[in-house]
What we know:
- The complex is a heterotrimer of chains A (568), B (317) and C (376).
- Chain A is built from 19 helices and 23 strands.
- Chain A has 568 residues and is of the alpha/beta class.
- Chain A starts with a strand and ends in a 12-residue tail after the last helix.
- Chain B has one domain (3-299): ABC transporter involved in vitamin B12 uptake, BtuC, CATH 1.10.3470.
- Chain B contains 12 helices and no strands.
- In chain B, α1 (3-30) runs antiparallel to α9, α1 crosses α10 (225-238) and α2 (38-56) crosses α5 (120-131).
- The longest helix of chain B has 29 residues, at 63-91.
- The radius of gyration of chain B is 19 Å and the shape is globular.
- Chain B starts with a helix and ends in a 20-residue tail after the last helix.
- Chain C is mostly helical.
- Chain C is 72% helix and 3% strand.
- Chain C contains 15 helices and 3 strands.
- A 3-stranded antiparallel sheet of chain C has the order 1-2-3.
- The longest helix of chain C has 30 residues, at 132-161.
- Chain C is globular, with a radius of gyration of 24 Å.
- Classes of the chains: A alpha/beta (568), B mainly alpha (317), C mainly alpha (376).
- Chains B and C meet through α3, α4, α10 and α12 of B and β1, α8, α13 and α15 of C.
Amino acid sequence: xxxxxxxxxxxxxxxxxxxxxxxxxxxxxxxxxxxxxxxxxxxxxxxxxxxxxxxxxxxxxxxxxxxxxxxxxxxxxxxxxxxxxxxxxxxxxxxxxxxxxxxxxxxxxxxxxxxxxxxxxxxxxxxxxxxxxxxxxxxxxxxxxxxxxxxxxxxxxxxxxxxxxxxxxxxxxxxxxxxxxxxxxxxxxxxxxxxxxxxxxxxxxxxxxxxxxxxxxxxxxxxxxxxxxxxxxxxxxxxxxxxxxxxxxxxxxxxxxxxxxxxxxxxxxxxxxxxxxxxxxxxxxxxxxxxxxxxxxxxxxxxxxxxxxxxxxxxxxxxxxxxxxxxxxxxxxxxxxxxxxxxxxxxxxxxxxxxxxxxxxxxxxxxxxxxxxxxxxxxxxxxxxxxxxxxxxxxxxxxxxxxxxxxxxxxxxxxxxxxxxxxxxxxxxxxxxxxxxxxxxxxxxxxxxxxxxxxxxxxxxxxxxxxxxxxxxxxxxxxxxxxxxxxxxxxxxxxxxxxxxxxxxxxxxxxxxxxxxxxxxxxxxxxxxxxxxxxxxxxxxxxxxxxxxxxxxxxxxxxxxxxxxxxx
Amino acid sequence: xxxxxxxxxxxxxxxxxxxxxxxxxxxxxxxxxxxxxxxxxxxxxxxxxxxxxxxxxxxxxxxxxxxxxxxxxxxxxxxxxxxxxxxxxxxxxxxxxxxxxxxxxxxxxxxxxxxxxxxxxxxxxxxxxxxxxxxxxxxxxxxxxxxxxxxxxxxxxxxxxxxxxxxxxxxxxxxxxxxxxxxxxxxxxxxxxxxxxxxxxxxxxxxxxxxxxxxxxxxxxxxxxxxxxxxxxxxxxxxxxxxxxxxxxxxxxxxxxxxxxxxxxxxxxxxxxxxxxxxxxxxxxxxxxxxxxxxxxxxxxxxxxxxxxxxxxxxxx
Amino acid sequence: xxxxxxxxxxxxxxxxxxxxxxxxxxxxxxxxxxxxxxxxxxxxxxxxxxxxxxxxxxxxxxxxxxxxxxxxxxxxxxxxxxxxxxxxxxxxxxxxxxxxxxxxxxxxxxxxxxxxxxxxxxxxxxxxxxxxxxxxxxxxxxxxxxxxxxxxxxxxxxxxxxxxxxxxxxxxxxxxxxxxxxxxxxxxxxxxxxxxxxxxxxxxxxxxxxxxxxxxxxxxxxxxxxxxxxxxxxxxxxxxxxxxxxxxxxxxxxxxxxxxxxxxxxxxxxxxxxxxxxxxxxxxxxxxxxxxxxxxxxxxxxxxxxxxxxxxxxxxxxxxxxxxxxxxxxxxxxxxxxxxxxxxxxxxxxxxxxxxxxxxxxxxxxxxxxxxxxxx
Lengths: 568, 317, 376
């Protein structure tokens, strides 16, 4: 290895209040290599890179660029050292064009000449194989286009160290391939590229070396050619984990929620959900797979009554218990007619046919309460507000993707958050905090939520605990249908398993669970069926026990239309 | 001269008060700060200029020097006010609305105390003729178009050019739209916010000075300054955050605001006393209308800067 | 040693960090320190502005003494101080529900003025024609309606089209001013446009105690009511949820538009009450200056109290205390009546600024030590 070290970090430590985000990290980056920084969510990958790019300043430690000690106080210092970072949340001004965003902040002598910028942008694009329209406004762009703008922005500044934070999270596989091609070309050009990721196969596919972080500490840096998925996982999580999630067979699945031809438009009139039809059965977990922003959020919100529906139906079947037939409501003739249509059943659930029985025998059977029937309530939820849905007696729980921005009130304590969906109970004008408090205490105990108290604002809790509070509340509602959007995003392994177990428990209780996930391994291991959506349309529903990752991946990406970014 | 033309010119001259005020406020708002202290700043600008004129009154200086010194006094005082505002809202991240209101309370009060101590025969009578160059002495409305009027128009046009045609303007707009992004590309957000607020305050302050010394040129002028300050904030909305639009907007405002007293002087038109307040209400009603229409149309380019009113803290987690 | 020197040059001197929790004792100490510091600066400014003090610096003791004298000097002054405080408190209460919803209603000035106008309109037209008690009730109702309507208009547009409420309510203040001058021109055609004290429609004082006692008690009751409303009622809960996140509110089934409109009507109604207290309780007249900027001061009072009605008693008391003190100074030292604004402004700068030291800490860097943060 005759490669030159481009950047090195020694003894880097960063704290946020009492939380240690990085502890004593040493790291080297060579010229002309792709280095992956691998670690679970919340292990301090992004924080570490933010210190190289000048967003944060380390509490301790030193950074060397090309052997010289440097101090990076601001992003400008980073740029001056030819270091550029592409953040996960793009740092672009929506109102500006691509070119304006690219030149923003550059100190160049002479006039403000956007024409010259445009031609230089095109040059860079050509060199590495991007496609870009410099005149296009950011608010008109797809996610992938925005990412291209970000990368060119960094290249335009002449960066030779590029840091990409989770660059593939929002891209289709084709776009990922294209990105990796571009990155490899940059490597050949002598640039150092650092990719922050938690996806193992991408690490193995594109990088030369992998640095693994765990709980803020640097565990090891290995050559990719010496690594395997299992060795990396072991280093990443600290112990061997099997992705075997318990999966029981569905018991007596009955249609619970039927969605027929559902279509939603966004504000600009673009189809975000296109003619989606599916059935969610009781006692079953239905997974929804798709690239981020393919309409998952809109679909769930439409079902929950939070999104206007252009066309289609949402049929909810509310199961009722068996009731004995009486002659109080029905005449003998009617009973016979209905029996002929298999409307009745006996206590074992077998169809009860009264054919051949005399009226007396029938009367005796009915009087004994042996003739049972069930009339499920069937309701159309289309066009109903969340409140109307609830007042119909439909127990529909929803764990939204945006926990603190939608599911919970960040500044309120757990008790007050418990009331969020139930505070209207009772006719008095005042809220009753007694029951919510009991529920809060129960959830803290049952789900092992670590919090200083029931009234500590939930915003101060860690991501896993926030999610436990939210899922706990939605389950306490005793739902018939439970929808969960990315319920384990950002959670550590242990919390994730807590959530999987909770979902499985609901499934066993006969709840129809809808699980929107991003990790295909998890979807395949947890769900019974998986529905794949792509640009708002269903591309297939498969059996999770037999389907393969490749099969689903292909369905996620069949068309070329770029996925519209989900509004933040 | 034709009465209507006369009226138009006077509207222009009157409007220049708001033109200064709102050009300054636009610069500040473009950096993401809603400065409700503008009325106070305009008052203090006027007071600062008059204080200097009061001091140099007996010296018999060259007219150009008098103008420069007066303007410098107005700028210094109003930029000092801007500095207080930016220190509190940028460095100390205080609530912008509350800070602005406190600044207005303070500025209006302090101006009244200062002005009550100055001698109008010194700061007003002599300098008035100098500031009304080149039309001093005329009896028609042209007399109101003094040096500072033309400076004001120039400032509005230059401000637009800087905002929309230069690198500095691009950066300033980026700061107001998305300070996190601006910071990430190496723009010194704090510096831009300070500069925009202080320069903006200086421009607004000149408006106060212009109003006292040139347009109204009376010793009671300062009493109506606060109201003109609020009207300047209204004009920002009317101009859709574009400084050059304030030239047109201020004329309309000036027209509406002064027509109550002016229109009665025009032959053939009689206005009842009761109609006057209703006419004076018009600029505010028109502003509300613009605000409503632009919110209904919801065009991205016509909205307030996206981060308006929000403090920026880089290490926020 | 030389290496240490080198790094200390490179590293930033200090950086800021947000405090994770606020220590109430510390916060109170900081606020008190800020007020004391503000008073010192006021003294310095006074030396420049007040000629008598300038010529005779020994009078600085009198200067500070005026604050006590202004509010507590005589029993009459004390009651006047309490009355001013009550009116300010009432308007501050009025802006609070909207602020808790993060609806930046800076239109309390106009809403209150409309409340005054409403009650005076009734008194002007019906005064003497119907029994006094009926008149007072009608005046109250009119004040409520006028205030509520003035609050409702911007809320409707906010709810429907998300029209910027700060700018809208600001404009509504001036529209209200000219509505008042319009009616003054109509009622007083002589040209002076000044309406004298009306003979009818005066809120009678309680049979015992001071003439202002009734107003003070009404405001105290309102304070308690609003505290309970915000903290314990379902509507208060909804206001907090909407203020935190509109999306969360929609998710939980709250009709956000309805809450915005309802809350602004509540704010408007409370402004109407304040207007009634001014119109029927104190002035028996209306001018464009009837509210005199208290609508704006109320915003500061409410914010300083962190939108807590009980805390507002302290903050409105503080502002009123400064106002009466400064008014006493202008009287005793024979300076412009605008002095209170200057003094209140200076103190406000310090209180506003000190919030920063409560919520953030400055971490100074030490090059040799292992980055131990020194907090200030």
